[in-house]
Write a structure and sequence with these properties.
The complex is a heterotetramer of chains A (317), B (355), C (524) and D (327). Chain A is of the alpha/beta class. Chain A contains ten helices and 14 strands. Chain A is 45% helix and 18% strand. In chain A, the strands form three sheets. Chain A has a six-stranded parallel beta sheet, sandwiched between helices. In chain A, helix 2 packs parallel to helix 3 and helix 9 runs parallel beside helix 10. Chain C contains 19 helices and 20 strands. Chain D contains 14 helices and two strands, in the order αααααααββααααααα. Chain D has a two-stranded antiparallel sheet. Classes of the chains: A alpha/beta (317), B mainly alpha (355), C alpha/beta (524), D mainly alpha (327). The interface between B and C is large, with 40 and 47 residues. The structure holds adenosine-5'-triphosphate (ATP) (2 copies) and magnesium ion (MG) (2 copies). Chain D: InterPro entries: ABC_transp_permease. Chain D: Pfam families: BPD_transp_2.
Chain lengths: 317, 355, 524, 327
């Protein structure tokens, strides 16, 4: 059996990462790892994540699958983890190059926002002259800027206009207040809503349901029940789904392989995004009303495809 | 005159008997001194640190490993300075909610000076700290000029400073910093001690001297304890308040720059949204260390030990592997247990020794 | 007569480093006023705090009638019919006078609506009894020290307790208010109450007390004996172990020395009008007036705490621009001993050395880079010793000192400061007679040896007459006139009272020359 | 007449009221939709909950302490409420009562530790903040409870008469109740007395311990009520409810004239403080402020609001001083 002890470390408590726990357990069982544990920092703080990672080193973990609390800020600690002889990779979100992470597997945040906006504009029957609004998370998160830019780009390419960006609404209370206030004032001026963070997506879906306006189209992000239900009921056009389970499962597998002596292929077909040139897409799909019911199956199939070809595509063993 | 931290101050029940005017005979004096030491807040914290260290060393493997000690020292080093930056304002009877915000501004300023303006690291540090002093002093001036409570002023400026920073940087970071500056944060002296910890100790000594042995420090204490009396004694209370906010800015800046050196980059998110992540460590150290929230009393050593205790407890809990989601509950319980133990110790000593 | 209602037997109490009481006994009869006397720090307040349940005695018993009682706190004491006026003010600043008076009785039904109108009416009764003419709805924070003292007394009276302890109730009252209080106390005594009266003013004690207990260094120097047959010197001997030394200072005049501080036609934002005042080098000018005359506020206006609206302040012959207290202290070397030691005079949570040193730090800090306690101590210790501050150490927190000793610290810090002009506001509040004499000597020495100009604000007529070279009388924010001090008590006090009263009754708002008080030099 | 004017000028709520009126006038001038019924409803919904949060802190400020755990209590009660309904299928009114009991208990624990140990409330509530938040996370593992009965959802969002949402009802009751408590009932006066001068209160025979515990229990109750109302409003039992409350909970009472050292708070002032904060929040959205500048504008608006209030205080002080001089 392998002596690989994998730690899957999100940025903080968040429902998005819950699937990592099962993914780790399954991977540990399937690949005979010493363990693959889901370790959550007590809060969304860089310091808390760092302290957790340091304590995991002390506890003998030797493979780290880390969601970067900050694309640049987490580089330092990842480099130190690698310095202790461990394998480290960025999961779900990427570190900004250069870093010691072997690669980044997850969602290209910018691209996901870009694709989502395109879906939105398509649903509006083409973007020309359309007005959309963008609800997103904390500005201190560098990814937020990437999302804002990506939405802007997709809109301008299609001739649409982003008339307002409301950011810093990662907490439910302000999200509620601001989104509702916005809709109260501007509901009749806006054609579409793109949300690129979990909480705003949920809150906006509820708000649309409340005002009962199906004219305004919205594309959300992630797989919250409220959102999925709103898609089914037609209040939300669709959502950009990601694949946390696949990230955790394949990530644990890869980490173990790398510890067993495999190396990354020199010509591995990594993709590039705004942050890194060593990016592996764990699957980002748009799920409209037709897809929401079996999104789990479709994610599983993406995972399966990615997993089956992973070793041959990316690793030299 | 209500105090927030009533029994955190031993003054109510502890007598001090230690110099020539004392009528007590020599041996009595010694025991009095010993009692005073045993009853002090600092001693209590030290005792707790030792007790918990022993417990953790026994039950958690790896607690005493050099990496663990190094990491703990480094984390504590920053938390202690953050605590200091709040302490100097608490002493004046005020608060500074913008410590985190200032810390990030200084860090980003330092990053800009080193990366964009091309300053050598020491000039970058000096320039950035000057920025911290200015921002802090601005807080002080606003408080003095408007006569509003520092709580509300720093609440507003927290938003303003942070907003200006995020607007100027557009949430971008500076990571091409001089290598000698960045290695500083990762260096290990003798394999266990982080140089950041040494910086912290030096700052601590300077602060202790400031409060004990300088006119300005004593004035600050007097103005914080009773502004009316201080004013009637000829102290310029306004200037003192501006001074302590400027100091707070510099200290927050030091903490920010330490984090930059540690992370290897100046990033806007290092203290969370609006710098709020720092609020907890900022208050924890001083309050546990016996600094009264109503002002007038500071304990540099107490703040240092208080911040260290919290770092120790957190590290220990993480190593104990209580289920990830329960760490916070346990931390709260441990904190409660720690202050209760300290209370018991004090009342036990008071009952059995002092009468 | 001797039916004992209360007895504290063999009480001992220690604080860290201090044996405050040792085997002290006190016996109270009904229908009597019992004096509790002793020097500062003798243990009077401590004994009172034990009797009222604030401190627990280490040894000894408390007996109410013939039953021994255990008091677990102030509420217990109140429930047993023991009321108290503490030496220190204990009022809720933002609450109205009436609410402060009736705070404890409100507690009986914590969920019934408070009828404020009835409350104010009831309060009125007690205020009238003490001749305090203020609206009972006024927040106590707006009252002067003396008025707060009266409210505190009203509060205690309203409990109608069997045993009432008054810890220096008259310390900040003038003789007029004291007289009113005494008539109330007489009535209570005649109604069968048992009163304990603490004061450092022996005239008052002799006037109303019929029994006396004296404490010296925490032990009984005499225990519950009749006042009859004791004269002033006997009491003094019991208190300090020797008889009183009455200073025999000749009248002097300083009319030739230079003017150190002058006020010309000053009006202030607090309401003073046309104030003209001169204090010369080495001169001690007394400023006398009834409570609320505006003396304290005048002092603070000179210091730059309140704005001067017109007129000018001249220091050493040059017009002074005083914009803040710090200006007054560091530029013009004017010091001020506050009448309110707890709020303005002292930093209670700091040590003695910190408190006394505050005025010399700057000076010492200039001489050496680092300011050590040793240096400060060298500078201030002589004054502390001279005033006999009773403390185990200079590092004792001022909070833990007895009231009188706190007052000494608050005065000592300015004696040490080396200022050119010193304004002293009610310096001897709560100071025992021995120290009062030392204090007077020190003030006199300051004037004689250091040429300090001293403006003495005091409501204590004997003190005024002992110390002042010239007495300026103030009433209602105006100066009524001044009198050269002849040091003949009877004549002087009559002249002063005439100046206040005649003026007031004849022409309340007059700016005319009050020639009614003939034979006395008027202010220019 | 003049006397009355000056007493209005001096009261704590006058300044905030003036600011509120000016702000409403200004904003609706530039953006008429601000006063549309739907927007008023949105504003009221936000104010209804935030007022309770602010009151929860205000009561503790009144005794001269701080309660850092308001948010943690609110969050714990919120997830208890939704958890009772989802996991144990308890009918919502009973679940609400049980959840409020959790809030009361949490408040009681705070008060108990503070009163019995004499340790500063700051430390105690810091520790319990961690405990309550940890319980919340331990129970939910950060995943929300979704099964909120439709009845609760509609109570949280519907109006009983346009544009008054149901949620304002508890807030109105609490506002009156609290005002009456603090101004007319001995319990409330004791709270303020303890805040004004704890030592003096003790000497006057007030049980300081009981008073402290009472205040904390009230605080826990109010925070819990806010948590429950938020579940109804958000239609989801979010574990993150409460994470953001701390600053608001202090800002509103302070804008409303509360003295942080205790002994003086104003219910109406606090309510107006909440209104001001809500208007500021809306202004940032309505005027499409660049997201990167939102924080700067927010800071300046806070300064503007409290600065204006301060100006008023100075004026009022002057008016009374002059009157004093005339009298
Ligand atoms: N809380 C305390 N801690 C330490 N020492 C105390 C405390 N309270 C009183 N003492 C000491 O006990 C002694 C007696 O004090 P007490 O207040 O009873 O004196 P007193 O007779 O009332 O004096 P005064 O006339 O100055 O009011 C003093 O030496 C004082 O310093
Ligand atoms: N009749 C009154 N009603 C209410 N407040 C009064 C009254 N008289 C005076 N005051 C207040 O009490 C204070 C008295 O002023 P001040 O202390 O300057 O006088 P003083 O002559 O020093 O009297 P004291 O002997 O009390 O110190 C002022 O704050 C004044 O506003
Ligand atoms: Mg006394
Ligand atoms: Mg006076």
């Amino acid at each position: 059996d392998s002596d690989t002890k994998v730690a899957l470390v999100p940025g903080g408590p968040h429902p998005y990462f819950t699937a990592w726990e099962q993914a780790g357990k399954d991977a540990a069982k399937d690949f005979g790892l010493a363990s693959a544990d889901y370790k959550v920092p007590q809060k969304w703080e860089l310091g808390a994540q760092n302290q957790l990672l340091e304590s995991l080193v002390t506890q003998g973990y030797n493979a780290f699958l880390v969601f970067p609390g900050d694309p640049v800020g987490t580089v330092g600690i990842v480099d130190e983890l690698v310095g202790t002889g461990a394998v480290a990779m960025a999961l779900a979100g990427c570190l900004r190059d250069p870093s010691e992470a072997v690669f980044c597997m997850g969602t290209d945040t910018g691209n996901s926002a870009y694709l989502g906006t395109q879906e939105l504009l398509e649903s509006l029957g083409g973007g020309e002259g359309k007005k959309i609004v963008h609800f997103t998370g904390f500005l201190v998160d560098a990814n937020t800027k990437l999302r804002i830019d990506a939405v802007e780009q997709a809109a301008s390419e299609a001739g649409a206009e982003v008339i307002q960006v409301i950011a810093d609404i990662d907490a439910p209370e302000p999200a509620e207040e601001k989104i509702n206030a916005y809709l109260a004032a501007h509901a009749d001026e806006v054609d579409g809503i793109i949300t690129t963070a979990w909480v705003p997506a949920v809150v906006a879906a509820n708000a649309l349901r409340k005002i009962g306006d199906k004219r305004i189209k919205m594309v959300g992000i992630d797989h919250d029940e409220v959102l999925l239900q709103a898609v089914k009921d037609g209040f939300v056009h669709g959502t950009m789904l990601q694949n946390p389970y696949g990230q955790g499962y394949i990530g644990s597998f890869a980490a173990d392989k790398l510890r067993q002596g495999c190396t990354i292929k020199a010509d591995a077909p990594f993709k590039s995004n705004a942050l890194t040139d060593k990016f592996i897409d764990s699957g980002t799909v748009f799920a409209g009303v037709d897809e929401v019911d079996d999104y789990v199956t479709s994610m599983q199939s993406i995972t399966k495809t990615l997993f089956e070809s992973f070793e041959s595509t990316y690793l030299d063993c | 005159m209500n105090n927030f931290g009533s029994t955190q101050s031993p003054s109510q029940d502890v007598g001090i008997l230690d110099d020539e005017t004392s009528p007590a005979p020599g041996s009595g004096r010694l025991t009095q001194q010993l009692r005073r030491l045993l009853l002090s807040n600092e001693f209590g914290l030290l005792a707790l640190i030792i007790i918990f260290s022993i417990i953790f060393a026994i039950v958690t493997p790896g607690f005493t490993s050099s990496f663990s000690l190094f990491a703990m020292g480094r984390t504590a080093a920053v938390n202690i300075i953050i605590g200091f930056s709040m302490m100097v304002v608490i002493v004046s009877g005020g608060l500074n909610l913008s410590v985190g915000s200032i810390g990030v501004c200084v860090a980003m300023g330092g990053g800009w000076l080193m990366q964009v303006a091309g300053f050598p690291w020491y000039l970058g540090v000096v320039g950035a700290l000057a920025l911290g002093a200015m921002i802090g002093a601005l807080n002080g001036v606003l408080i003095v000029k408007t006569g509003l409570h520092s709580f509300i002023i720093t609440l507003a400026t927290m938003s303003i400073f942070f907003g200006v920073m995020i607007f100027l940087t557009q949430a971008g970071s500076f990571r091409e910093l001089p290598p000698e500056y960045v290695t500083f944060g990762r260096m290990k002296i003798n394999g266990v001690v982080s140089p950041l910890l040494i910086v912290t100790l030096v700052v601590g000594v300077i602060l202790a001297v400031f409060f004990k042995l300088t006119t300005a420090g004593r004035r600050l204490l007097a103005a914080g304890a009773n502004p009316d009396a201080a004013e009637l004694s000829g102290i310029r209370v306004d200037r003192t308040i501006i001074l302590c906010h400027a100091m707070s800015g510099v200290l927050a800046g030091i903490a920010g720059l330490m984090l930059v050196s540690r992370t290897g980059a100046a990033i806007p998110s290092m203290a969370g949204q609006l710098g709020q992540d720092w609020l907890l460590p900022a208050f924890l150290g001083p309050v546990l260390g016996g600094t009264l929230l109503t002002g007038g009393r500071a304990s540099v050593l107490g703040t240092l030990l208080g911040a260290f205790l919290v770092t120790l407890l957190t590290t220990g809990l993480l190593l104990l592997q209580v289920g990830a989601f329960w760490v916070q509950t346990c931390l709260g319980l441990l904190l409660l247990a720690a202050v209760l133990i300290d209370l018991l110790r004090r009342s036990y000593l008071a009952r059995h020794n002092l009468i | 007569m001797s039916n004992v209602v209360f007895r504290a037997a063999n009480i001992s109490k220690s604080f860290p480093g201090v044996k405050a009481l040792q085997n002290v006994t006190l016996e109270l009869n009904s229908g009597s006023i019992h004096a509790l006397l002793g020097e500062n720090g003798a243990g009077k307040s401590t004994l009172i705090k034990i009797i009222t349940g604030i401190h627990r005695q280490d040894q000894g018993t408390l007996m109410l009638g013939d039953q021994s009682v255990q008091l677990h706190g102030p509420r217990d004491a109140i429930a047993h019919g023991i009321g108290v006026v503490h030496q220190e003010r204990n009022l809720i600043p933002r609450f109205s006078i009436s609410e402060n008076i009736f705070l404890e009785s409100l507690g009986k039904q914590s969920l019934t609506r408070i009828d404020y109108r009835a409350l104010h009416e009831q309060a009125r009764v007690w205020l009238d009894m003490l001749a305090l003419d203020v609206d009972p709805a006024t927040p106590v924070a707006k009252l002067s020290v003396a008025q707060m003292q009266l409210v505190e007394i009203a509060k205690a009276l309203s409990l109608k307790s069997k045993v009432l302890l008054l810890d220096e109730p008259t310390a900040s009252l003038t003789s007029h208010e004291t007289d009113t209080l005494f008539s109330v106390l007489h009535r209570l005594r005649d109604g069968g109450a048992s009163l304990v009266f603490v004061s450092h003013k022996l005239e008052e004690v002799q006037e109303i007390c019929d029994q006396v207990t004296v404490l010296r260094d925490g032990v009984n120097a005499c225990e519950s004996r009749a006042m009859e047959g004791l004269d002033r010197q006997d009491i003094v001997k019991l208190m300090i172990g020797r008889s009183e030394q009455i200073p025999d200072w000749a009248a002097r005049t300083r009319s030739t020395s230079e003017v150190a501080l002058e006020l010309r036609d000053v009006s202030t934002e607090s309401g003073h009008r046309d104030i003209n005042l001169q204090v010369r080098r080495a001169e001690i000018v007394g400023l006398y007036g009834l409570v609320g005359a505006g003396r304290t506020e005048l002092a603070k206006s000179i210091l730059g705490k309140y704005r001067i609206q017109s007129g000018s302040i001249i220091v050493d012959g040059k017009p002074a621009a005083i914009n803040s207290v710090a200006d007054a202290v560091s530029k013009y070397h004017i010091g001020y001993v506050s009448e309110d030691r707890k709020k303005e005079g002292l930093i209670l949570m700091h040590s003695i050395i910190e408190n006394v040193g505050i005025t010399v730090w700057e000076q010492l800090g200039k001489a050496k880079a680092l300011l050590t306690n040793r240096a400060v101590k060298k500078h201030v210790e002589p004054y502390i010793n001279k005033l006999e501050v009773k403390t185990p150490s200079l590092n004792q927190f001022v909070n833990n000192l007895s009231g009188g000793n706190q007052q000494k610290v608050s005065v000592a810090k300015w004696l040490a400061a080396g200022v050119k002009v010193l304004i002293i506001d009610e310096p001897s509040v709560g100071i025992d007679i021995k120290t009062k004499a030392y204090l007077h000597e020190l003030v006199r020495e300051l004037a004689d040896n250091e040429n300090t100009a001293i403006l003495l604000i005091s409501s204590d007529m004997p003190e005024m007459i002992t110390l002042a070279d010239r007495i300026v009388v103030m009433n209602d924010f105006r100066i009524m006139g001044d009198i050269d001090n002849t040091r003949e008590y009877a004549a002087m006090s009559e002249a002063i009272m005439n100046l206040i009263h005649s003026k007031k009754t004849i022409q309340p708002n007059s700016e005319e020359d009050p020639s009614a008080s003939s034979g006395i030099g008027m202010a220019t | 007449m003049k006397r009355q004017l000056s007493s209005y000028l001096q009261s704590d709520w006058f300044g905030p009221l003036l600011i509120t009126i000016t702000a409403i006038a200004l904003v609706s001038w530039f953006n008429p939709s601000f006063l549309s019924p739907f927007n008023i409803q949105i504003l009221l919904l936000a104010i209804a909950v935030n007022a309770l949060i602010a009151y929860a802190q205000m009561v503790i400020i009144a005794i001269g302490q701080m309660n850092l755990s308001v948010g943690a209590i609110g969050g714990l009660v919120a997830i208890s409420f939704s958890g009772f309904m989802e996991v144990w299928s308890i009918p919502w009114p009973i679940a609400a009562v049980m959840a409020l009991a959790v809030g009361l208990a949490a408040g009681y624990l705070n008060g108990f530790f503070v009163a019995m140990t004499g340790i500063s409330a700051f430390i105690i509530t810091l520790a319990t903040l961690s405990i309550y938040k940890g319980l919340n996370l331990g129970i939910t593992e950060a995943t929300p409870f979704y099964k909120i009965p439709d009845m609760v959802k509609s109570l949280g969002n519907d109006t009983f008469i346009q544009p008054l949402p149901w949620l304002v009802i508890p807030t109105v009751i609490v506002t009156f109740g609290l005002w009456y408590l603090l101004n007319r009932l001995p319990v409330g006066r004791f709270i303020l007395a303890v805040g004004g001068n704890e030592h003096a209160a003790e000497l006057s025979g007030i049980s300081v311990r009981k008073t402290i515990i009472t205040a904390h229990v009230i605080s826990g109750f109010l925070a819990g009520l806010a948590g429950i109302m938020l579940v109804a409003r958000l239609q989801i039992g979010q574990p993150t409810i409460g994470d953001d409350w701390l600053i608001l909970s202090f800002a509103a009472p302070v804008i409303g004239g509360a003295v942080l050292t205790g002994g003086h708070v104003s219910v109406v002032g606090t309510l107006l403080g909440v209104v001001i904060v809500a208007i500021i929040t809306q202004v940032l959205v309505l005027f499409n402020v660049d997201p990167f500048l939102v924080q700067v504008v927010l800071g300046f608006l806070i300064l503007w609001a409290v600065g204006l209030n301060k100006l008023r205080e100075v004026r009022a002080a002057k008016v009374t001083a002059e009157q004093g001089a005339i009298a």
